[in-house]
Design goal:
Distance between the termini: 20 Å
Radius of gyration: 13 Å
Number of strands: 5
Number of helices: 4
Structural class: alpha+beta
CATH topology: Ribosomal Protein L30, Chain: A
Helix content: 25-40%
Largest sheet: 5 strands, mixed
CATH superfamily: Ribosomal protein L30/L7
Number of domains: 1
CATH architecture: 2-Layer Sandwich
Length: 121
Amino acid sequence: MSTEPMIAIVRIRGTCAIDGEIRSTLDMLNVHKKNYCSVVPKNPSYGGMIKKVKDYITWGEIDDATLKLLKEKRGKDGKSFFRLNPPTKGYGRKGIKIPFSRGGGLGERGQKINDLIQRMV
């Protein structure tokens, strides 16, 4: 479908006790609430925004098949985000406050974001 790589961003932590600057960055990324997903192009400006809110989201490079599934099942006209269900079997075995590299749910997942999104659709 697309030649430019896309990044899927999924918010996994809620809205309580968030700094205003971080909240506005999450709103700019269109992940307003928990379990919302947004797909953005992979470029340095979005990279800086992701780096700022890394303690509230998980992200990775989405493939074309998962993007097509996401648009078919959850896509609405004119919306740039997707509301998803909580994932079957959870985000990670250690919870949502631990980085993905250490067995939790936060941070960069790489290609494994596709598995998470398929469990949430």
